[in-house]
């Protein structure tokens, strides 16, 4: 899950349940990839505390107007005045939580609830703010009101969506995303699972509603609450239902969150700028390193290129540990090798782990290349493998020599290895720095190749010597 990011698009982190530990809860979630959260409110008395908390924790604030209780105290005019004032005073990035609950319909509370929701929608539209909408048990009513505002640029999220696929499509067509949380982790919520799996890409976001909507795994504890880190379990469930990786699920939901709540971008913009600056610095440094290594000049111990080499080795160790220590599909392996090599590998590339390298950034792989288990690439000096080549078990490709002078023994002398097209290198062979192997050549098992190999030649032994030439029939047409 390295580099994964995700957003909590609906939470109540300013609730009293978090008085003692919200900082710790957010910190733990940030370590796992939490990039931002929308801290929602329901009434005026919450605005100041929630806005202050969001500012202190570098999160985003939403001003809402909603009473979820069974006997709500709904005073639409007063609550709408407070909401308008909050927009001027606190500059929220969204309006939420607003909405209607099914238990208020066909009761004395229906009329004020409708008036409050309609007024909140109009305030959001007038201020060009997205909304987070509570629609449980009242989706038909919510849809009717949103359709009446379809001519505006209003957008938002249907919070805690638990409706049918037909209802989902109605809201998506209106420009809304659908919010899903711990319901996806509940094995009994079969309809929600079916609906979620069938949604079009980019139409859903994830949320905790923390401290509410407690995951089913915590419900045995009466004091349990939902918290930001619970989104990891939601993402795992989402990934499984949609047949994608957890990283892909996180990124899909993040893109959707930023589409519907564009001011969330402000919350992470400073991080993005810093990351881009660091990436630019790393790219320039890597470019300088590769230029130094590909020049063939001696690299002195302690030089910038030498220090960069050590840093790259740590990154290579991290990625090869991922490659070697668990099962990956061919697609996942290609993604990991692309990260390791710093460039995309072709979709025809295949490898049987384990695989080892202490750099990776100076390897170029062609199409239809296969690398068998246990191979070791020391590629600082540059390794190029042509289309259709096969690399056998435990092959070592070494591109670095040390100086023979004892006083300069720490210095490194790089020289590239070039492997042509349709080459077959047998198990346990070693290819030394500066060697070029011609197209169609065959390297016998256990050979130590110290000199260039001509095309369509079979070599073997220690050191490797020519055994014979391939016949015209044996050569590639």
What's the short story on this structure?
The chain is an alpha/beta fold and 477 residues long.
Strand order of the largest sheet: 1-2-3-4-5-6-7-8
Number of strands: 26
Distance between the termini: 45 Å
Give the biggest sheet.
Answer: 8 strands, parallel
Shape: elongated
Tell me the fraction of residues in β-strands, as a range.
15-25%
Structural class: alpha/beta
Which whole number gives the mean pLDDT?
91
Would you identify the regions where 5 or more consecutive residues have pLDDT less than 50?
266-278
Helix content: 25-40%
Helix segment tally: 12
Radius of gyration: 30 Å
Describe the protein.
- The chain is an alpha/beta fold and 477 residues long.
- The protein is 37% helix and 18% strand.
- The protein has twelve helices and 26 strands.
- The chain has helices spanning 22-32, 44-56, 76-90, 110-126, 139-148, 165-173, 190-198, 231-242, 246-260, 264-294, 304-324, 330-341; strands at 6-11, 34-39, 60-63, 94-99, 131-134, 156-159, 176-180, 204-206, 350-351, 355-357, 363-365, 370-371, 375-378, 383-385, 390-391, 396-398, 400-402, 412-414, 417-419, 424-425, 430-431, 436-437, 442-443, 448-449, 457-460, 465-469.
- The strands form five sheets. It has an eight-stranded parallel beta sheet with strand order 1-2-3-4-5-6-7-8. The chain has a seven-stranded mixed beta sheet with strand order 9-12-15-20-23-25-26. It has a five-stranded parallel beta sheet with strand order 10-13-16-21-24.
- Helix 7 (190-198) links the parallel strand 7 (176-180) and strand 8 (204-206).
- Helix 11 packs antiparallel against helix 12.
- The longest helix has 31 residues, at 264-294.
- The protein is elongated, with a radius of gyration of 30 Å.
- Mean pLDDT is 91; it is low at 266-278.
